[in-house]
Amino acid sequence: ALTAFQNALFADRLPGEVRFRPFFYPPTWLLMLLPLATLAVGQAYALFLAGTVALASLFEGRHDWPGWLAILVSPAAAWVALTGQNTFLSLALFYGGLRLLDTAPAAAGILLGLLAYKPQLWLLVPLALIAARQWRVLAWTLGTVIAVALASLAVFGPDLWRAFFDAAREAGSARIVDEMLSRVSSQIVSLFAAGTILGLPRSVASVLQLAGAVLAVAAVWIAFRRHPSGVARTAVLATATFLVSPYTLNYDLLLLMPAAVGLFREGAHKGFYPGERLLYIVLWLMPLAGMVLSRFGLPVVPLVILLFGAVAWMRLPQPKGELRAVAAAR
Question: At residue 138, does pLDDT exceed 60?
């Protein structure tokens, strides 16, 4: 529907018909974009990109300016700017919310609730909050999701929500999967896409994706149930997000970059594991290098993500029970 609308709206400006432009966002995202509706496309793009970078800098970048500079000049950031994506906003809400879990539950919940505009990046957030027993944050998160959904319903009416649910059901259809794989498979960084690029049957690639999702759910549950907050626990959640969703693309890898900077800082302070520094360099390059390698039949990005998740797991702090025992012994 979006592709047909774009072709009709910009028929006098386009050299030819635009092909397959999927839009699987809930109406809450359109509500968030509404303030830009009266601007010209170029102005809206510039304001949106500058505004989301500013928000990300406020919530995350100010904690480590040298590391933030490395993120801003990364291939992932370049892809976000080139394609006009919303990953800087996702980064701001994700890391901003997780940083405030223990100090400002209401603010944390609101930020994490707003992140639900992109469901594939939000999917594991409620699980993490339940595992961590962050009940106040969870209440604020779900309350925010409901409030924004009701606001979008009031503004746009029910037809848009019905269209979204129809599109969401169609997203898993063979036609949409075939379109995605034929046009952007080299940019998709999921286990499912890697399996299809390697020539595995669709059913086997789906099992591979399911196995990654099971691993992700287990890792998030254990990390947030047993371990205190910290950069490693956040990195586990960020990594798990990419193992759960079959529709994450190379520009979404920007979400991993602050976690990588944080783990690099920990390594510099405590010592690096063998090959750890090289892993961070490879991860930084993956949004571009991974796409090129995928076009040559070498979909290595999921492997790099898994290795990054393994490092994050090894850097998890002592379990909460052990910390209490140490404190009591003192």
Answer: yes
Amino acid 6 reads Q
Neighbours of 169 (CB within 10 A): 10
The secondary structure of 86-127 as a DSSP string is: -HHHHHHHHHHHHHTTTT-HHHHHHHHHHGGGSHHHHTTHHH
Q: How many helices and strands in the chain, by DSSP H and E?
A: 19, 0
Tell me 188's DSSP state: B
- The tokens 């900077």 sit on which residue? 261
Q: Which two tokens stand for residue 141?
A: 């998160």
Residue 249 gets which letter from DSSP? B
Are 92 and 53 spatial neighbours (Cβ–Cβ below 8 Å)?
no
Please state, in angstroms and rounded to a whole number, the distance separating the CA atoms of residues 23 and 20. Answer: 10
Q: Is the pLDDT of residue 18 over 80?
A: no
pTM to 2 decimal places: 0.91
DSSP 330: -
pLDDT band for position 174 (50/70/90)?
Answer: confident
> Please, which residues have CB within 8 angstroms of residue 46's CB and are 6 or more apart in sequence?
none
pLDDT tens by residue, 278-303: 999 999 999 999 999 999 999 999 99
Which residue, among 217, 255, 252, 215, has the nearest Cα to 235 in the 3D structure?
A: 255
Task: Mention every residue, 6+ apart, whose C-beta is less than 8 A from residue 176.
Answer: 22, 170
Separation between Cα atoms, residue 67 and residue 261, nearest integer Å: 6
Where are the domains positioned within the chain? Answer: 22-329
Cβ atoms within 10 Å of 247's Cβ, excluding its own: 20
Cα–Cα distance list, 140 to 129, 147, 179 (Å): 11, 10, 38
**Residue at token pair 């509706």:** 37
CB 67 within 8 Å of CB 265: yes
So what's the pLDDT on residue 78? 96
Q: What is the mean pLDDT of residues 156-174?
A: 86
pLDDT at 327: 46
